[in-house]
Amino acid sequence: MKCLFAGLLAILALSHAFPASAAPAAASNAATTAARPKIGLVLGGGGARGLAHVGVIEQLERMRVPIDCIAGTSAGALVGGIYASGMPVPEIVRNLEQADWDRLIGGTPDRRNLPYTRKRDDYQNLAAATFGLDAEGLKVPRSVVGSQFIDRFLREMTRDIYKESFNDLPIPFEAVATDLEKGDMRVFKSGDLAIALRASMAVPGVFDVVDDNGRLLVDGMFVRNLPVENLKDRSPGSCAADIVIVVDVGTPMLKTEQIRTFLDVASQAMNIATGRNVIEQRKLIGPSDVLIEPNLDGYTPASFTSVKEIIQRGREAMKPFEARLAGLAMDDTHYRGWLTRIAGRTVEAQKPYDKLVVTPTRFVPLDTVESVIAGDVPPATQAQLLDRFDKVYDSGDFDSINYRLQTEGGQRIATVTPLERSVGPNYLRMGIDFKLDTYRTASISFLGNYQLTWLNQWGAQWRNDLRLGAETSLQSEFYQPLADTQTFLVGRVAASTSSLPLFDESGNRLFEIGVDARGAELGGGYSFGRFGEIRVTGFTEHLKGEVVTGGFGLTSQVTTRLKGGHALLIVDQLDNPKWPRHGYFLRSDYVAGKLTDVDDQANLLQFDGDLVGTLGTYTVRGTARVRGSLDQKLSTVPVPYQLGGFLQLSGLQTNQLTGARTGLGRVMVYKQISALLPQLGSGTYIGGSLEGGKVWNQIFTGTNTKVIPAASAYLGVDTVLGPLYLGLGWSEYDGSSKWAGYLYLGYTN
């Protein structure tokens, strides 16, 4: 998997490369004549290591060595294709260095742009993997990484170039891909340049395959990772280069002592798979050819955070070849003319398309997609069309939205293919969370989430959440948007079984109450799109409480029913609720109701607010939380509110304090110290918190606590299974310092 990802990264990384420039003026004789040898440039695959191609091309331009044709595979195709299209080297370097590689490779939409209905699951500890489940059985995604942002990047870099022959590019070019069904080679010599590059770098299992008129194509590294033969071919229409400059950036084979993990084994297997065809191609390199192997020790196909350094390695690799390449150099006048010719820029991307065609969809209504893509003014330039794609993609219903170019009767036609999620429209996610602390408290829960979407043309959804373990619960909600408006109807039923531990003032556990709850609510609301929503519902809830442990022999059972109204406002603009770096969050719940046999009305409030910002490498997150009875009456609280535990007065036991209302203020500061492969998570963090909390009308004493100070320090990892914390907490309570260690997996707020 590592090698696959590496391949993908390689592909991505190699997104730019160009010709070279100035050299010694003395060495320009034969090269300036019409009889000069035809020079071909071969660029091999290698992921981020392929960024070195850019440095090589830059130096070729410095030495005034003209390139007559280019062949590339994977990352080499990416760099070579963009250079062959006429983009100047400085622009390629700038685009590569400014690219947000985490976003390009991660392939997921900006969470802040998603509709709120797609964000709700983030507050459960569900694993990142999403499966499909319907009458046909379980569906597994075809790729690990979404290709939407890479597709857009390629479109912007290739500027809508479509050629009946790539020989008509400023520099003739060809790209190598692999036919996934037959296992043979597919060489792109014409058509839509962006599609050719995308196919050549489609690492299987990482990026989705490319459908080329019915042929499923993946990365060309499996058939010819170093396409020397392509440029030496003497058949009609081929380059037939007299001299080839070959740049090999492949990952060296690992030695026995370097193979330590399953990822190392997978990487070595990939090296073996691609290495054999590289060996065969290197045998074709003749005495007049030039083989360049940049020193890329310390860089892997995934090293996209080292763009500048890898490009520099490419530059340095050219120093030993200056004297040898001097004989191929043009004089300054002729080379400037050559550069002018290849720098011809296409303006096609700035022209509106003559026609937009949207292919049929599977479950999202076609008119919904067409209305966004067509826009208010149907003719669209490339930039306008790509922005519309982003809006469609942000709905969360699509794996990618791309287009193919073609010409017909002198018209430029863009055929748009919105690829809905391959596992949709019914999604299954699972997860696990656990909590351990040095108070010997341990809990574990297994989670399941099953959503059915697009149940009708208005976008109805039916979501079901199951939790088994320390707390058992089942919730089912039906969400029905009303026509093309932002309003919706909603109905929900829920049942849960949980426990309420009760402690004395010294923190000794006295007994535990089991709480069973069953309820239903019905109402409507208004969606603010990507920002959030407001709901107003009526509800009824039946509750039963019973002593399950301790209780000094008490076996009493209490039942009650709460009926009333519920108003909810949510605004969610966090970029990642588990390890946010930017954004804000607000949730405000108000419940007005009556409990059985209680005269007073229950006025219950839940308020949660978060504000997050990042300065440099440090992130600061401020949190305010209030939950409970507005009038602090325990008699009107169906289930008392609790506080205590990691990041909720760290140092105390989990849920140690119980009362009619709780309040918490917290400031967290953390920093990412390393990155993870997307298959494993996003990164590792160190951080700490300062906390203060209070409980009103405690359950046994009826008194209010003072503001209790607390703090924590922790190491955290954002894994695909959820946030993992190893922390140490402190608080000052009941006249003494309390210390505790915590190991948590799961969302903690």
Which features characterize this protein?
16-stranded antiparallel beta barrel; 32 strands; lipid metabolism; Porin; alpha+beta; 19% helix; Ubiquitin-like (UB roll); signal; 15 helices; 749 residues; Acyl_Trfase/lysoPLipase
Which secondary structure elements does this structure contain, and how are they paired or packed?
Elements: H1 2-13, E1 39-43, H2 52-62, E2 69-73, H3 75-84, H4 89-98, H5 101-106, E3 131-134, E4 137-139, H6 148-158, E5 162-163, E6 173-179, E7 185-188, E8 191-192, H7 193-200, E9 210-212, E10 215-219, H8 221-224, H9 228-232, E11 243-247, H10 262-282, E12 290-292, H11 307-317, H12 322-326, H13 332-342, E13 355-358, H14 366-374, H15 382-393, E14 398-408, E15 411-420, E16 426-437, E17 442-452, E18 461-469, E19 472-481, E20 487-503, E21 509-527, E22 532-550, E23 557-572, E24 583-595, E25 601-615, E26 618-629, E27 641-643, E28 657-675, E29 681-698, E30 708-719, E31 722-733, E32 736-745
Parallel strand pairs: 1-2, 1-11, 2-6, 11-12, 13-15
Antiparallel strand pairs: 3-4, 3-16, 5-8, 6-7, 6-10, 9-10, 14-15, 16-17, 16-32, 17-18, 18-19, 19-20, 20-21, 21-22, 22-23, 23-24, 24-25, 25-26, 26-28, 27-28, 28-29, 29-30, 30-31, 31-32
Helix pairs in contact: 1-3, 1-10, 2-11, 3-7, 6-7, 6-15, 14-15
